User: Which sequence fits this backbone?
């Protein structure tokens, strides 16, 4: 777990550098962005595509995303998959909400992000509404966003709760294993 978690922490720092360079229209934005592509099996749709105008308020409000929780699973193709729940990049809501679930695994090219999921806003990532499975996400709490769907990986081999969300997803965080 430690190797994959270290890889993700390195990625999150670079992701922050890319976004900061983009919102400040840094002259080396494209070079910084190229460094980030090595973190993916393929280039995801969500990698920022170009500089914005200089936005000092936005630049002051972004920070590297926080890892709320990391869960390690056995996987038939990758050996092990690390699923991590991430915060928003915006400081003003960083500890309040889940922003993305990322899967990381060792590949033939080394560690890489292999899939991403968005939070289900119908059930607030709990997977249920009024005691029934959420119809929007199929009871998973997450909606597939990019790359392969890995579905249910069974019980985790190890879970690390790193940071507890403060508001919206507190219930989902407490219930998940």
Assistant:
């Amino acid at each position: 777990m430690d190797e994959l978690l270290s890889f993700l922490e390195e990625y999150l720092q670079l992701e922050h550098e890319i976004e900061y360079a983009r919102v400040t229209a840094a002259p080396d934005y494209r070079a910084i962005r190229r460094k980030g592509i090595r973190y993916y099996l393929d280039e995801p749709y969500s990698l920022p595509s170009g500089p914005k105008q200089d936005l000092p308020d936005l630049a002051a409000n972004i920070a590297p995303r926080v890892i709320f929780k990391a869960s390690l699973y056995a996987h038939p193709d990758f050996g092990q998959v690390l699923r991590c729940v991430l915060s928003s990049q915006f400081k003003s809501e960083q500890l309040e909400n889940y922003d993305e679930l990322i899967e990381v695994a060792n590949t033939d090219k080394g560690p890489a992000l292999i899939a991403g999921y968005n939070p289900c806003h119908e059930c607030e990532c709990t997977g249920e509404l009024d005691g029934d499975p959420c119809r929007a996400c199929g009871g998973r709490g997450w909606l597939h966003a990019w790359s392969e769907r890995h579905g249910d990986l069974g019980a985790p081999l190890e879970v690390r709760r790193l940071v507890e969300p403060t508001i919206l997803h507190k219930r989902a965080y407490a219930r998940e294993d």
